[in-house]
Write a structure and sequence with these properties.
The protein is of the alpha/beta class and 229 residues long. The chain has eight helices and eight strands. Helix 4 runs parallel beside helix 6.
Length: 229
Amino acid sequence: MDFSVRDLSLPRISIIVGHTGSGKTEFAVNLALALAEHCPRPVLADLDVVNPYYRSRERRDLLKEKGIELIASSQACLDADLPSMPAQLNAVFDDPSLTAILDIGGSVQGARVLARYRPRILAQSQGVYFVLNGCRPATSTLEGALISMEGISQIMGLPVVGIINNSHLGCETTVETILDGIALAEALSLETGVPILCHSAEAHLACQLPPQSSPVFPMTRYMKHPWEL
């Protein structure tokens, strides 16, 4: 199976959002590693102030080895209405030579993190991408997925421009799991008019999928459960 991240035609700043447990961080890390092969100055900004687990900072050494700059938010004062963001984030908006991925927390609070940056974001080449995991209870139906995607978009004040189907059940994921997710993603796309950016799956499953109209992004599992670290 041939895949190139160039097939995704991403803007300079890719904003990755989704419901809690959708697999945003795993996708963001894989996307950053794929971009590092083509972009001279890739940046991954871990701005998830919601989930204490599955933080991209867990793979700081790997990212550094591949030439990816990691910007990580502090977990201090997470109960604040507007948690503090790292000062380095300003460079993402000020330096057009950077190619950035922003990993945003999966809740209303997570979406609010970027709402304050809306004017600066709109001045950039950017896109918001919704990660859909059809195996999560809150997004297992078209209605639930629609509520989640539209709710995040409304809070951020930014439109979603692409859907990423990342339906999985961890190590219990099968090809059928992914195919069910593809059907849900296609229904969401049809309902909203938002195109599917790609379908993602671990590489050993991605190669078993039948041909799709949207790119299939083969991924490696880097993020671990707390008890696996």
